[in-house]
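Obj: model holo form, ligand = zinc ion.
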Amino acid sequence: MLTDSHTHLNAEQFNEDQDEMIQRALDAGVTRMVNVGFNRETIPSSIALAEKYDFIYSTVGWHPVDAIDMMPGDLGWIEELCKHEKVVAIGEIGLDYYWDKSPRDVQQRVFREQIQLARKLGMPIVIHNRDAHQDILHILKEEKAEEVGGIMHCFSGSWETAKQCLDMNFHISFGGPVTFKNAKQPKEVLAQVPLDRLLIETDAPYLTPHPFRGKRNESAYVRLVAETAAEIRGLTVDEIAEITTNNTIRLLGLK
Ligand SMILES: [Zn+2]
Ligand SMILES: [Zn+2]
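Output (holo structure tokens):
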């Protein structure tokens, strides 16, 4: 019973074989998938997927890379969609200082507005963080994100950063990069995260785990992340699957 806590099944990379790819995930033992809608195009298609399959859930939020495209009214749109029974979190939201499509001050404003919305609605948040550890922590603290908590998705920071996120009620989710041979820091953090805060994900079609690195990722490969986690924690893959599935169910209120 694996759960992929962060995937993009509605990405254009799956236009040709979406149903087959979802079936491969089921065949690999994936029982639940949390699909992330993150901008004007992917939010409606993510909700449509969650309506089509009972084992698929959706998040809705505005991604920092696309922050510049957020218009007045879009926050209200997200708020309205949060009432949908299959919408389980606000995200992915956060900061991305790698791509420079959206200026940092716009990213920070859009991030803050969505944390405020999450607190108003009592929804957990899914955090995207690329090259912005300090500003992410600062804004999460200032906006009192610990009231709702959520998921640090595809975590890539140090144990020091992880500890601060844990203190603010966040779960730490690991994806494909933790399977890479040279991923010393993610493996060190995975070794120390309390088991009741551990999640696994693919972020498919991106961040493909070893040994398929460089190819298209898909939710079936969450098993490869579970295998790495099992090895590091000295548990079986089934135990990791059960622990991470129960954590996701509890945090997001999945069936
Ligand atoms: Zn992300
Ligand atoms: Zn993502």
